[in-house]
Design a protein that fits this description.
With 259 residues, the protein is an alpha/beta fold. The protein contains seven helices and eleven strands. It has one domain: Rossmann fold, CATH 3.40.50. Helix 4 packs across helix 5.
Length: 259
């Protein structure tokens, strides 16, 4: 069996750094599981408008029925995640394989975990055994349900991207997840990146342009790393997931499109 050119990506960052904007540059058509309502601002993004050459076009899907077919009138299909059942239904439809999506984005897995906790316990406090069940359910959805769509036998996804909040734990900024999944999560991904904005200075030492950067190499202060043999470098300036995908698999993509 020859594996398709594909990868999984986890990006964590502070609030208002551009995580959702970065997700908007995934290879289209894109399915976005939106648990925070941020997708509604994507058509306003100059960064994504530059990527598409026009404002991005959204459609929506309620996963009680099959996903919409791609007809060229939209770029990103949004599933608004109000509860855990919506996540489960979406995953089940995706594994049927009868869809046209090239990328799947989860925004964010931090919020998805909160909805999973609510589904398990409502407003009650979590007990020891509940944390084990939470880990099992999140493992099933994140790892086998979504990440492994890159390995689907008939309709593999090109890019599966997870967005997470960030928090400092033991002196290091990490994706914000509760319980043991915080330890396991980095091992599940091909690339884990820390997104940040850096303000550059001009030759006179004056404050100049702001640059969005994605750290994807190991660092003592930020959870980051990659398993793609250094093909993307240590830090990606003005990151674009579509460009990352083509930089990794250019020749294979060409062969796939010509097949």
């Amino acid at each position: 069996m020859t594996l398709a050119p594909s990868f999984s990506l986890l990006v964590h960052a502070h609030s208002k750094t551009g995580k959702t904007t970065l997700a908007g540059t995934c290879p289209p058509p894109v399915l976005m599981l939106d648990a925070e309502g941020r997708s509604r601002f994507l058509p306003l993004s100059e960064y994504i408008t530059a990527f598409y050459g026009r404002p991005v076009r959204l459609t929506s899907w309620v996963p009680t029925g099959p996903p919409p077919r791609y007809d060229g009138t939209w770029d990103i299909c949004v599933v608004y995640v109000g509860d855990w059942a919506t996540v489960v239904n979406t995953v089940q439809w995706l594994h049927v394989g009868q869809h046209d999506f090239k990328s799947v984005v989860v925004d964010s897995i931090t919020e998805l975990q909160r909805k999973c906790k609510t589904n398990l316990k409502g407003t009650e406090a979590m007990k020891i055994q509940d944390w084990g069940e939470l880990l099992t359910q999140m493992d099933t959805v994140i790892r086998t349900g979504l990440r492994d769509l890159t390995l689907h036998p008939t309709n593999p996804i090109d890019v599966v991207m997870f967005i997470a909040e960030t928090r400092q734990s033991n002196g290091k900024w990490k994706p914000y997840m509760q319980g043991q999944i915080e330890v396991a999560l980095p091992y599940w991904m091909d690339i884990i990146g820390y997104l940040y904005i850096e303000t550059l200075q001009d030759a006179n030492g004056q404050t100049g342009q702001e640059v969005r950067r994605l750290l994807i190499s190991q660092h003592p202060l930020y959870e980051a790393g990659e398993a793609v043999q250094g093909r993307l470098g240590r830090i990606i300036d003005q990151p674009n997931v579509y460009q990352m995908y083509h930089q990794l698999f250019g020749d294979q993509i060409q062969m796939k499109e010509n097949a």
